Amino acid sequence: MSTSRKKPAQTAPARKPAAPRPSPQQGLGLEEIKSLIALVGREPFQEFEFEAGDMRFRIRKDGPAPVVAAPQVLLSAPVAQPLAIPSMPTAPVAPAAPEAPADEPGIHYVTSPIVGTFYRAPNPTSTPYVQPGDFVKPGQTLCIVEAMKLMNEIESDIAGEVVKALVENGQPVEYGERLFAVRVS
Amino acid sequence: MSAALKRKAPKAAPASADAPPFKKVLIANRGEIALRVILACKELGIQTVAVYSEADRNALHVRFADEEVCIGPPPSGKSYLNIPQVIAAAEVTGAEAIHPGYGFLSENAHFVEVCLACGINFIGPSAEIIRKMGNKAQAKATMQAAGVPLMPGSDGVIETVEEALAVAEEIGYPVIVKASAGGGGRGMRIVNSPEEMADQYHTARSEAKGAFGDDSVYMEKYLLEPRHIEVQIMGDLFGHVVHLGERECSIQRRHQKLIEESPSAALTPDLRRRICETAVRAAKAVGYYNAGTIEFLLDKRGDFFFMEMNTRVQVEHPVTELVTGIDIVKEQLYIAAGRKLSFTQEQVVQKGHAIECRINAEDPFKFTPCPGRITALNFPGGPGIRVDTAMHQDAVIPPHYDSMVAKLIAYGADRHEAIARMRRALDTLVIEGIKTTAPLHRRIMDHPDFIAGTFSTKWMETFLEELKQQQAAG
What we know:
- The complex is a heterodimer.
- Chain A contains four helices and ten strands.
- Chain A is α+β, with helices and mostly antiparallel strands.
- In chain A, the strands form three sheets. A four-stranded antiparallel β-sheet of chain A has the order 3-10-8-5, with no helix packed on it. A four-stranded antiparallel β-sheet of chain A has the order 7-6-4-9, with no helix packed on it. Chain A has a two-stranded antiparallel ribbon with strand order 1-2.
- In chain A, strand 6 (141-147) and strand 7 (150-155) form a beta hairpin.
- Residues 1-25 and 63-100 of chain A have low confidence and may be disordered.
- By secondary structure, chain B is α+β, with helices and mostly antiparallel strands.
- Residues 6-15 of chain B have low confidence and may be disordered.
- Chain B folds into three domains: 17-123, Rossmann fold; 152-221, ATP-grasp fold, A domain (Dna Ligase, domain 1); 227-473, 2-Layer Sandwich (D-amino Acid Aminotransferase, Chain A, domain 1), CATH 3.30.470.
- In chain B, strands 13-12-9-10-11-14-19-17 form an eight-stranded antiparallel β-sheet, with helices on both faces. In chain B, strands 3-2-1-4-5 form a five-stranded parallel β-sheet. Chain B has a three-stranded antiparallel β-sheet with strand order 7-6-8.
- Chain A binds chain B through residues 1-7, 9-12, 15, 75, 78-79, 82-83, 99-100, 114-117, 147-148, 166-168, 171-178, and chain B through 1-8, 54, 57-58, 60, 62-64, 66, 68-73, 79, 84-85, 87-89, 91-93, 118, 392-395.
């Protein structure tokens, strides 16, 4: 995620469309604010902060605070800009949000214990180990991370329903990177 | 976090003689040396990959590299020393070469072999050379064969206390018992008389076992008032070996260097020529290539003895860079890519004087480590000052790694000017939030012995004793 700060040239134009972003001069209309609120309600954010020009607002959901890995999310902000000048606008918060979704209660993230290349299936012709909607048990193989020509089977460390695969097949992953979201059962 | 691994397609290298030696280099290190290598790569148009542990997410080497890969949790055994993780990071990013910096994997022969097996260029000498020079007893045998003067001592590993007593009798007390696999002062014990031998010998062995997993020890004569003089070597794959002059590193505490300078105030031109030529002969004897350092002990009478060879870039390499005008790290990259040395021995000229102070995050007088957050920071500048550091405002110094936060390097037309510049650099250095050794360096810069250039490796002990007495009196 820190890529965006230092490699503007290579940052793909918005990997996932973020919240609607009106041009700073315009501010937001009522309709846009409504749709933003609806969006935040749907998405697994706990809190959403938006700033453009003079305008700034925050949407916060009621309910239980996120339990899992919240500190990690908090950490990532200072990480992204260790030398940031305090007066710098916080606008980049919005585009960063889709990459580090605030944690939804009951969701567990299976992370990669090693650096390597992520594969969802044992070989290119077979079907993925798991699909969203599948129920998995602790110890069940979820994917492979290849490193130094070795295929390392990554097992689930929890029982639950696979909600989402967070990495594309064949992409590199680093230590601690989130691979799957699992709804704890 | 997959975005952390996104990378752009490598730019096609221009087909000229100045083409970068590599397209992409991974730096298997952290802190100031990782940054130093990144800066050299930037100047040469090489893409860089930083690896980091979870404790270093904010680090400048991560920020300034083109790509970064998290390779593990904070303990270095699980991250910076974790060979499969480092190699996998090079593979997924397509790095052609790995620069190991100093410490961590830099003198690990097995790592060099793994790099080779995976088709990755290791920026340093071969596994064979590292192995040969890394084992102190074997290094001595090699040097003896090449006619390099050795310290009087045992001909190899000492197996029993009886043998230790016999060897000590032959070379004369005091003697020092050292770990064969050692370095950095661990597994070393000074023995002043036969009565002390049994205790010190066993302590050295168990320390060696604990620190290096190998309890073999050897013995040497212990010199009085010796100076630590080392010679920077560079060699290429075509058999050229040159020296870049000497460094004086006698200001040390418990075998950890605090201040280094070049040239040494203790060498006459004739002695300098002999010691540097001996170093070249030693390096040629092992077919050395890339950057390396041969360390000698110089005694009061001008006799010098081979101590060890470091098969990597040294912490104190900047003082040599300043007096010779040669960029050692860039040269390392060119050599690893198979280019010839860009200069001959005749072209290496020591000009002016450079001094380096290692600023550590430690109590300046008690030397207890002081990790924490830097709340205010100003680095000195102005003519003749170089600062090699990876610190920044609000940086957190993690407790997992070594305590060096910056290297302050002063250059002047002569030693007098270099000292004057170092003084005012230390006066304008601000590091708040943690304790550093800067105040200690400032006192050393004013000490008559330091100004006169008359000090041995024992000098710090005396100086610290002096300070204690002053504090007690004042």
